[in-house]
Structure formats: structure tokens, C-alpha cells
Design a protein that fits this description.
With 104 residues, this protein is an all-alpha fold. It has a domain at 72-98. 89% of the residues lie in helices and 0% in strands. It has one helix spanning 2-94. The longest helix is centred in the middle third of the chain and has 93 residues, at 2-94.
């Protein structure tokens, strides 16, 4: 009976040790898989954010260019109107009447 008890204890010890080793290795593998999935999720989120910011920057650059062109046109018109106003004022002081050539 003594050898049967020893064999039972050795079997119990081996199965417990095997279960413990399996648990540790499985837990490690699970943690690595979770970390890997988190990295993939963060990478996907970053790529989405980068794409959105790139598109926003491109749209804003386009808008800035359009506003700069509009600003240039308005400055040109302003300068032309200033010139016409100066011509009218000088003509009025000198007593000259007549039509000013509108360019706008």
C-alpha cells in the first residue's frame, strides 16, 4: 500500500505541476496576444486620425489659397477705386467736369 500512495502523490504532484506550468505559459501567451491587439488598435486609430488631419489640412490650405486670391482681387479693386476717387477730387478742385472711366 505504501508504493500505491507514493505513486498517487507523484501523479498528483505531476498533474498539479503540469497544470501550473500550462497556466503560466497560457497566461503569458494571452497577455502577448492582448498587447498585440492593443497595438494594432492604436495603430488603426492613429492612421484614422492622421488621415483626418491630412484631409483637414489639405482643405484648409485650399481655402487659404482661395481667400488669398480673393484678397488680391479686393486690393486691386480698392486701389482702382482710390485712383478714381483721387481723379474725381482733383477734377473737382480744378473745376473739370466729365465722366471718369469706370474700370470695375
Amino acid at each position: 500500500m505504501g508504493s500505491e500512495v507514493i505513486m498517487a502523490l507523484v501523479g498528483l504532484l505531476c498533474s498539479t505541476l503540469s497544470s501550473l506550468i500550462t497556466f503560466v505559459l497560457t497566461k503569458r501567451k494571452y497577455n502577448v496576444e492582448v498587447d498585440s491587439q492593443q497595438i494594432q488598435n492604436m495603430e488603426a486609430a492613429f492612421n484614422t486620425y492622421k488621415k483626418m488631419t491630412d484631409e483637414t489640412i489639405k482643405a484648409q490650405d485650399s481655402r487659404i489659397e482661395m481667400l488669398q486670391r480673393e484678397n488680391e482681387n479686393l486690393r486691386r479693386q480698392f486701389n482702382e477705386l482710390q485712383q478714381q476717387m483721387l481723379t474725381l477730387l482733383v477734377g473737382k478742385k480744378l473745376g473739370i467736369t466729365g465722366d471718369v472711366n469706370p474700370t470695375v
